[in-house]
Design brief:
This protein has 307 residues and is mainly α. Helix content is 74%, strand content 3%. It is globular and about 65 Å long.
Length: 307
């Protein structure tokens, strides 16, 4: 990565000035990260070691858990380390790597959530054609598309940032390298770049979110024709998906539709999609899902008996 400016490292300002508060949140975020690791590993182990892996919904959920693990690992371990450190330094190349990885995994996760919504739409609106439409080949294609679009999005964002001059100010008012905090340090007019960044991330997120909302409204409309038992099961599954989508999309939209120069609470809000949402996803999908709970009991009881 060629840095054409004279900045070789950045300093994170973090979220708090008080060292005692930082140490407290260092411990809290460590607990959150351990919960993310444990929760998502349980989901992955349960699905891959049970019959659920054959079902498209759980196959996609498996990929969502893997994405949550990778997505948080690009940010949270460094955040925990920085909260315990006096100076929060990141080298330019490491900063660009974090920016690329974060947006690659984040945008791939967005498209996996879209794939999961499409899966529920087909299951409820076209139940007789479900296994034909959502076969394993189609699921794999959706995963490949998610990674491909994620790679395209993060590459264009990275190339845009790499061509900007950083001439002196190197203090990032955030706890990670993201596009808006970095744009505030650029020593040239960023009006056009700001618009491109908002279109690349913010507008796309709004469009995807509206498509998801429309699909779930359509699903709820078609549930009228189902039996009461089928309606309850479908509502339980869809409500879990809707909770995850809202927890992830609403904070993201707030962050990425704001211009880089504006004073907002983006670093506080970003905690929702970098820490809170990945931590709650396993709870939402396991505690609200009878099939998942039954599979967990079978898998873990089998492990106990095999010891």
């Amino acid at each position: 990565m060629e840095n054409q400016s004279n900045v070789t490292e950045f300093v994170f300002l973090g979220m708090w000035k008080n060292k005692q508060i930082e140490l407290l949140f260092c411990f809290l975020f460590l607990l959150c990260y351990l919960a993310i690791l444990m929760g998502n590993f349980i989901i992955l182990h349960t699905i891959t070691c049970s019959h659920l892996i054959k079902q498209p919904m759980y196959y996609l959920l498996c990929h969502l858990s893997l994405m949550d693990l990778s997505f948080t690992t690009t940010v949270v371990p460094r955040l925990i380390r920085d909260l315990a450190s006096e100076r929060k330094i990141i080298y330019f190349n490491d900063c660009m790597t974090q920016l690329f990885s974060f947006h690659l995994l984040g945008s791939a996760e967005v498209l996996i959530l879209v794939s999961m919504a499409f899966d529920r739409y087909v299951a409820i609106v076209k139940p007789l054609h479900y296994m034909v439409i959502m076969n394993r080949q189609r699921c794999n294609m959706l995963i490949v598309v998610a990674w491909s679009v994620g790679f395209w999005h993060s590459t264009t964002l990275l190339l845009m940032v790499l061509h900007l001059p950083f001439c002196g100010p190197n203090q990032i008012n955030h706890y990670m390298c993201d596009v808006n905090p970095l744009l505030k340090l650029v020593c040239k007019d960023i009006h056009i770049v700001n618009i491109l960044a908002i279109v690349n991330s913010g507008i796309v997120l709004i469009v995807v979110f509206l498509v998801l909302v429309a699909s779930y409204i359509n699903i709820l409309y078609h549930l009228r024709t189902h039996s009461s038992a089928g309606r309850r099961k479908a509502l339980s599954t869809c409500s879990s998906h809707i909770m995850v989508v809202v927890l992830f999309f609403v904070p993201c939209i707030y962050t990425y539709t704001s211009p880089a120069g504006s004073e907002n609470k983006d670093k506080e809000i970003s905690v929702f999609y970098t820490v809170i949402s990945p931590m709650l996803n396993p709870l939402i999908y396991s505690l609200r899902n009878v099939e998942m709970k039954n599979a967990m009991q079978k898998v873990w009881s089998h492990m106990e008996h095999s010891k």
